[in-house]
Fold these 3 entries.
Entry 1:
Amino acid sequence: MKLNITIDGKTYEVEVEAVEPEAPAHLRGWMTGPAANVRVPAAPTPKSAGTRKKPVDEAKVLRSPVSGIVVKVAAQVGQTLQTGDVLLVLEAMKMETNITAPRPGKIGAIPVHEGDSVQSGEVVMEFE
């Protein structure tokens, strides 16, 4: 197939060849017309039962309410907290969100660091 393409006021005649690979076997029955260029993602690898961690005590963890980047870790392991103390700051969609202590307590571990990407629901703080 020949096409005319104009770039910066100059017209070029180009020849284009359409290459249509054969569709995967599981898609051939319902497709009509020429085969489409279909990419089938690889199936995710299931995690084996041996690599699972012990169940988490939800009363002793703080999960991220949003997906984002850790901008600042304002708390330290061993620090005693009061309800509302700022623990860390996340940036999500160009907005900063303060993550605060839900109750009084003491920090046992901080599994994230500044610059880390976190997903919604990921543990960002562990309490003693």
Note: Strands lie at 2-7, 10-15, 61-63, 68-73, 80-81, 86-92, 95-100, 105-109, 117-118, 123-127.
Entry 2:
Amino acid sequence: MASKIVNFTLNGRPVEAMSKPLTTLQAILREQFKYTATKSGCKQGGCGSCTVLVNDEPIMSCLLPVENVEGQEVVTLEGLLQSEDGLHPIQAAFFERFAVQCGYCSPGMIMISKALLEQNPQPSREEIVDALTGNFCRCTGYEPIIQAVEEAARRMNGG
């Protein structure tokens, strides 16, 4: 099969990816661009560890053919805006609330949280739980993650 060039914006900069038909965005991010925060978990859309933002919407990159992002804006964990200490407020809250243990689910959880907090700056606990439903974590028991999202919301709203 013939390769195709796909142009899109990745973490704020225009990029060009060379892919074969049906190559996933996840594969391109990890293999071509070496962005390894986007994890390669189940490869079936069931764990959420590969979640990225495409035009500010959370998408499981393991299911998305890279040709579908032609002309789109893609943001990975590596592309989050950083503060003076190098962390986005969501990342800092995850670290401080011990919401990161093995770290495998963390990039997807953080990206889902970013999308949620951009759409709803003051989500209820139930809305946070609902947003995180598609992301699987084997280590934390979810409570520290929920608390981290609540803390990030407070920080991002000046509280």
Note: The beta strands are 4-10, 13-19, 51-54, 57-60, 73-75.
Entry 3:
Amino acid sequence: MADVNRGNRPLSPHLTIYRPQWTSMTSILVRITGNGLIVGALLIVLWFVALAAGPEAFAVADAVITSWFGDLIMILSVWALWYHLLGGLRHLIWDAGYMLDVNKGEMLGQGAVIAATLLTVFTAIVV
């Protein structure tokens, strides 16, 4: 049987042991943006449901989406969409066996953050 009395120590190395690195933080951010996109998608679905429910419900939902808070959620959703896409491409590059050394991996992470920001600004201006 396993020894369950391990004392007051962590079971595995955690964030208190390792310093944050671009590669680990950007990988975590890909997961966070994936979950954040669910929230943005639910807000859009709620808007469509309110549209089908009638003018009063639509007026409330439209007021929420077009408010400063709704605009903030939508612009962050656009950034999350671009970043999640670029992060997925970054992982595909790694899965193919390319750019696996630390310097190139950090460059890919920084590039994904910068490119997502630029693409979000471009999307906001064009759309």
Note: The mean pLDDT is 88.
